[in-house]
Amino acid sequence: GVTDIPYEKGFFFLRTIEEAIGRDKFDEFLKGYFNKFAFKSIDLAEFEKELNQQIIKGDSSLKKKINAYAWIYQPGLPLNFEAPISTRFSEIDKVQKKLSANGIAGLKSKISTTNEKLYFIKTLPQNIEATKLSEIDREFNFTNSGNSEIQCAWYTLAVKRNYKPAYSKIEEFLINVGRRKLILPIYKELLTTTEGKQRAKVIYNKARPNYHSVAYTTVDEMIKQ
Q1: Can you list the domains of the chain with their CATH numbers?
Q2: Residues 147-164, buried b or exposed e (16+ Cβ, 10 A)?
């Protein structure tokens, strides 16, 4: 199935190693790693061996600091995980809290990058009214965005809150974009209601021929349920 674990947990594990030994040594390790294992696949045992030989080198303090066993074999995030802090996202959190009182106008100048827009959409209240979505759309024009990640997040919320001005663009998106990561959230939301399920089937009949087998196999199972 679809999971962020290899990407997100893997990233933070490597980031932990970099923080523990410094950027220069980490870059040296990566260069040696890629040269040694070029055009090869290795398993966890081989990676651990390389980590111990090239980085830890018998240093018990460093081994404890990196805590590789917990990162590799235990569920969740280890105790030495340091959550990233974004001052920009913190500012968006403040905007969200005052959204009703302060309104939408002018927010486009404060929320400008793709990551900021995504965070803004994903942290909007799940029970937000369609009329408020209309105001947001007038400010940001999310319905007509050319960014697939923003479209996925916005269209999923639009389906959830029955924001009809986005419906035609949602259908167009599902027909023309075949990446499973981007279409599944929208289909899942459509399938939560009887009306949505009917719409999903109509759209899927048009879209299925364009999908990779990985995508349509997953959606086939969802539609059957």
Answers
A1: 5-73 (1.10.390.10), 87-224 (1.25.40.320)
A2: eeebbbbbbbbbbbbebe
Which residue, 168, 152, 105, 161, is CA-closest to 133? 161
Taking Cα atoms as reference points, which of 159, 172, 182 lies closest to residue 207? 172
Which of 23-38 are b and which e, b meaning 16 or more Cβ less than 10 Å from the residue's Cβ? eeebeebeeeeeeeee
The single residue listed with the structure tokens 């018990």 is 60
Q: Are 206 and 175 in contact (CB under 8 A)?
A: yes
Quote the tokens at residue 222. Answer: 């969802």
12-32 residue pLDDT tens: 999 999 999 999 999 999 999
H helix or E strand, kind and range, residue 216: helix 213-224
Q: Look up tokens 């979505």; give the residue.
A: 133
Q: What is the pTM of this model?
A: 0.77
The tokens for 127 are: 């029970």
Angle at alpha carbon of residue 34, lines to 31 and 39, rounded to 5° = 160
Distances (CA, A) of 4 to 1, 76, 102, 191: 10, 12, 35, 23
In the numeric block, which tokens belong to residue 210? 């364009």
| Region at 151 (left for phi over 0; alpha for psi -120 to 50; beta for the rest) | alpha
Contact 78, 71 (CB under 8 A): yes
The proportion of the chain whose per-residue pLDDT surpasses 90, expressed as a percent, equals: 87
Phi, psi angles (nearest 5°) of residue 160: -60, -40
